[in-house]
């Protein structure tokens, strides 16, 4: 085992964590892991500037687990929580939790996730029974802290994940209140996709002599993703979408809409046309969102339509395409959206529909990412066609029993996952 894991062994994470890493199938640390893990183990505060899909979650979770597992007898206080991870959305919290569960499977550590939209009671019970690690969104966490259900008197690690998005979502006051209630003597790790002036201000406020690790160029989309735009009028967008989805290589497609209602409209059209589609936006309950995500992950639905905020933190293996049905308002959102495909060396396509009104935003985006995006025309699509309300897919797709169960992948086509292209 040790030889196979050579690059991870030198990071000194301990045998039980190495075993979990091996079981996760990782052979070598990603660049952010190789850079961040030694700094965190050495006790430094850290600013991690990294794109999504770089392995940043393991970059902070692994060394924290290693430090926690070596500290189980610190004062014998089993009630007190020792690590707190704060993230902007419920989806991201669930994502981090999955990572922690995988890497901590051989460690006797207990954790709780604290998010809004679900009943408080089990979360309060978990906190009161004593947990080593808490993963939380700011709003609910602050509520439960206010009701004195937390014991953060021994917090040694604080992680602020996707700090840029937490600022965008207006969480600064809550974060300030949370951090004020923590011990001064702690290690603070801050992760963000971009290093803005606001983030620098936050690091000055919360961190001590932090080391900065920047992976990739600032604000540049994941380099593995092939990006292009289709120029199309607003009224032809539904037909163009249907046209693209007839291609079976679009086997796991994440579509972004600007609004919740827009997302619902797109999903309805696709469902009516026989394409199994889920939606992910903030009008849906936490359970509905988790179910939609699980169905998408398992391949039960082929298409997921999401809004920007709900899609934060989505990590689905093998997303084949991201489609910006509506072009994002902010370049940062574009970077996050397309980061959902091409995660950890997989190569995916990111397609944006561009109407004449979007040209200014496209130019701003190209300036932001420092390169042009290829304009294409969709092969075989009739740009002169009259807009149609519901363009049904070809009959063989609708009738295939396999298509029913796998969301319209025609019989004989590669099932989801096998179509995933890997760089190495
Ligand atoms: P993240 O950037 O943390 O969202 O991680 C993106 C994906 O990379 C997740 O699916 C992880 O399971 C995966 N991953 C993390 N570290 C490694 C590694 N060292 N080797 C291969 N995959 C990894």
What's the helix and strand layout?
Blueprint: H1 6-9, H2 15-24, H3 31-41, E1 46-49, H4 56-69, E2 83-86, H5 90-103, E3 111-114, H6 120-129, E4 133-136, H7 138-146, E5 157-160, H8 163-168, H9 172-180, E6 187-192, H10 197-206, E7 211-214, E8 226-231, H11 237-245, E9 253-256, H12 260-272, E10 277-280, H13 286-298, E11 303-306, H14 308-311, E12 321-324, H15 331-338, E13 346-347, E14 349-354, H16 359-369, E15 374-376, H17 395-399, H18 401-406, E16 421-422
Helix pairs in contact: 3-4, 4-5, 7-9
Bound molecules: adenosine monophosphate.
Residues 26, 29-30, 33, 52-58, 315, 343-344 line the site of adenosine monophosphate.
What does this structure look like?
There is one protein chain. By secondary structure, this protein is an alpha/beta fold. It folds into two domains: 207 residues, Rossmann fold (3-Layer(aba) Sandwich), CATH 3.40.50.300; 181 residues, P-loop containing nucleotide triphosphate hydrolases (Rossmann fold, 3-Layer(aba) Sandwich), CATH 3.40.50.300. It is built from 18 helices and 16 strands. The chain has a seven-stranded parallel β-sheet with strand order 3-4-2-5-6-1-7, with helices on both faces. Strand 10, helix 13 and strand 11 form a beta-alpha-beta unit. The protein binds adenosine monophosphate (AMP).
